[in-house]
Amino acid sequence: MKPQPRFLVPFLLVLATLMLGACRPTPPPTEQPPEPTAQSAPADAAGDAKATQMRDAIQAPLDKARAVQDATQKAADQQRAAIDAATTQ
């Protein structure tokens, strides 16, 4: 007896799914504690240096923008003073 072609494709899909489901990797054992890291002191010093560099990289454009804002505000105040001096005379 020959299988009907319309049942062959779903049968193969189910078979492939079952075969792939059986190929799951086993999870690592959970009873063992994690391995300790080497030394945390040098890593902390390097981390502090990186944090300082990151903070400096963020602060530099902010400081520059504040300086430009202060210069712009000072120029605007001088222009207002010059306009007021010219109109009051």
Automatic annotation (TrEMBL):
Keyword field: Signal
UniProt keyword Methyltransferase, yes or no: no
UniProt feature, compositional bias: Low complexity: 37-52, 73-89
Biased composition (Pro residues): 25-36
Region of interest (Disordered), ranges: 23-89
Keyword Signal included in the entry's annotation: yes
The protein's name: Lipoprotein
Organism of this sequence: Pseudoxanthomonas indica
